Amino acid sequence: MQLKDVPAVITGGASGLGEAAARLLAEHGAKVAIFDVQEEKAQAIAKTLGGIAVTCDVTSAESAEAAFAKARAAHGPAGIAVNCAGIGVPAKILGKEGPLSLDFFNKVINVNLSGSFNILRLAAAEMQEREANDDGERGVIISTASVAAYEGQIGQAAYSASKGGIVAMTLPAARELARYGVRVLAIAPGLFMTPMMASLPEAAQESLAATLPFPSRLGQPYEYARIVKEMIENPIMNGEVVRIDSALRMAPK
Ligand SMILES: NC(=O)c1ccc[n+]([C@@H]2O[C@H](COP(=O)([O-])OP(=O)(O)OC[C@H]3O[C@@H](n4cnc5c(N)ncnc54)[C@H](O)[C@@H]3O)[C@@H](O)[C@H]2O)c1
User: Fold this and answer.
1) 114 φ, ψ to 5°?
2) Which DSSP category does 112 fall into?
3) How far apart are CA 170 and CA 136, in angstroms?
4) Ligand 1 centroid to residue 121 C-alpha, Å
5) Residue ranges of the domains in the chain?
6) For atom 34 of ligand 1, which residue has the closest CA?
7) Strands 94-95, 98-99: parallel, antiparallel or unpaired by DSSP?
């Protein structure tokens, strides 16, 4: 699918991987709407790329429905949706203060997995109304999993479960939405240099980078965004999760 003039929704677009995706898609002519809870940052970024910012909490059905309605009024029905909103706080199952609270586990699942599904379902509903292109395509939905979906470390039980859910729903969603000409994909990044990573001490960044076979450096958000662009433009990609990780296979800790 061509990017030019296609309405695109990017959650988590106020920071890191989502911001990079929003910038690259806007550069190639997509009409970008950034959905994020960080209102001011989202506004500032949207302004620089000629898109719009919409305050949206992906965990809420009402918030996401209202956000889609606003974006649609400005740009038309979405043809592209990219799920980048996520949280990654580590916590052990058995911590110093006893078993991990169920609320913590549910929160991570809620933002990362239910939030991604919330956007997927609403995006699919808009896409089915769009006119198909010559390839029969009406839309592309991309979610962001993680290599932790496959080899989560100690402290990542909740995070890995949430990302594993994204991996698992990609194929059934692609199969179901095929009849509407909507493709569904996911990306599983390894270690990327986002504000979260940049806040770690340099020594910690270096030791993380040393675990990466090649290239032995953190990925740049732009490199993630390039995969998003390729997935949108390449019509044969569907129902797949693509790792982008320098051949990293994470150790238990
Ligand atoms: N950075 C990495 O190395 C890495 C690796 C693997 C996977 N990921 C995944 O990529 C995605 C983006 O990560 P990042 O590093 O850019 O993180 P980030 O913290 O820089 O950005 C995440 C964005 O999501 C937004 N957000 C959080 N909760 C939200 C909610 N309920 N509703 C709407 N927006 C919300 C935040 O405000 C923020 O702008 C996440 O899903 C993360 O799990 C990142």
Assistant:
1) -65, -35
2) I
3) 20
4) 20
5) 7-240
6) 36
7) antiparallel
pTM over 0.85: yes
Q: Which candidate, 171, 172, 179, places its Cα nearest to that of 138? A: 179
53-65 per-position pLDDT tens digit: 999 999 999 999 9
Residues with CB under 6 A from ligand 1: 11-12, 14-18, 36-38, 56-59, 84-88, 111-112, 115, 144, 146, 189, 191-192, 194-197
The arrangement of secondary structure in 7-240, i.e. its CATH architecture, is 3-Layer(aba) Sandwich (3.40)
Nearest C-alpha neighbor of 173 from the set 251, 92, 118, 231: 118
Cβ-proximal residues to 16 (8 Å cutoff; 6+ apart), any chain: 84, 192, 194, 195, 196, 221
Q: Tell me: the pLDDT tens digits for 72-123?
A: 999 999 999 999 999 998 999 999 999 999 999 999 999 999 999 999 999 9
Percent of the chain whose predicted confidence (pLDDT) is above 70 = 100
Catalytic residues: 159
